[in-house]
Design goal:
Length: 256
Amino acid sequence: MIIFSNEEAFFKSKGIKYREGQRNPIVLPKTAIAVYSRELFYRFITTFFTKEVGYLSLANFEKNIYVLRHKGLCFTLFMAGVSGPVISADIEALAASGVEKFIIFGNCGVLHEHIDDLKIIIPTRAYRDEGTSQHYIPDSEYIDVNPKYQEIFKDVLGDYSLDFETGYTWTTDAFFRETPSKIEYFRNKGCVCVEMEAATIAAVCKAKGLDYFTFFYAGDNLGGKEWDERSLSGKARLDEKAKLLHLALDFAVEID
């Protein structure tokens, strides 16, 4: 049982932390870009001009926060936490340090065989088969996703001649419990993909009055008779995936 409360939290994030010699405190650039893939995150920090400005401390691990410069603008850059609890903590901490808009992307599983590997997917609704979102907004079957910026993002996709799919997503906490009956259930609801964070991102940002946009590139296929891993591995088709870094940055320029 999850109990929703609209009260203010008993304690709040104090924002990012700082290492010795770093400027403290710092107001982060208002638009943040994040990717779940470690390999793509490392491509970000080695391909573009970046500077580490602090870090997030999340119980038993730390991750660096960067400022990235692109086309004369500065953006916050971080590696997005996998799962609702971790991405919610990321958003809370970075918002406390000045971030107002989040662009978060990564791969997803697809529920239909016709969706090609690496195809871009824009979610418009997330079915809430997870727990974190339930603590930010009242209980409901689903939450609308990406209420802003869809047309701008589609224009940027057009600049890159990238095809895309628009549809609903199934957000779950338990990826090893994506059973055949559940896949069929959510496919019948209109879901085209499955992942672990979209409902949480939408709920946290809605509750806190933040702007966001989240999108996916297709990974493993759950729509056939057997599971097909395709490009799920972080290193699979990495050069093709890396093109999305430029896409995300150009989109960030448009909405900053």
